[in-house]
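In this supplementary section we document a worked example of the pipeline. Step one takes a protein sequence of length 191 as its only input; no multiple sequence alignment statistics are reported here. Step two produces a three-dimensional model, which step three serialises into structure tokens for compact storage. The input and output of this example are shown verbatim.
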Amino acid sequence: MSLHGRVALSAGLVLAVFVALTGFALDRAFHDSVRAAHQERLLGHIYLLLTAADPDEEGQRLLVPEALPEARFNLAGSGLYGEIRDEQGKVVWRSASTVGLSPPFSNRLRPGEKRFERQLDAAGTPYFIQSHGVSWVVDGTPRAYTFSVAENLEEFTREINHFRTSLAAWLGGMALLLVASAGALAAPALA
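The serialised model returned by step three reads:
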């Protein structure tokens, strides 16, 4: 192989490694960013449930209104699900969106404990789950509750796949442009 051929092959390998590493780094950064955005959004839904919950008139139970400002809690199978459990792990409230489904909510958390995780339900459907343990004073007595919100990963997966398709197209196009430029610059040297 000629010197020019070896240089071209080396440049092509360096370009391929650069494009692959750049693609991997950008994919990881985007994945982490989208995951953090979903975590923040679920945290906002936890706060929504905390503000909506109130003790009943006798001060014995925690109640959540049937219709919440976030409409997806009210639509069966919407992809967003909520649940509140008491200190024994008994379900106190579940959103209407959970009808016919069993998202893998956290059973119990100690007051002040927070957890964000990715879990599968019994059917293998993946969810992001944000849970918070809180202490709520009901009838003068502090009681522990676990507020949980789950979201299936359809939207998350769609965002990641769209980005990956776009990233592959752009990096592939730029790699082809660089190869063509290098070929155009090397052509006069061969003549």
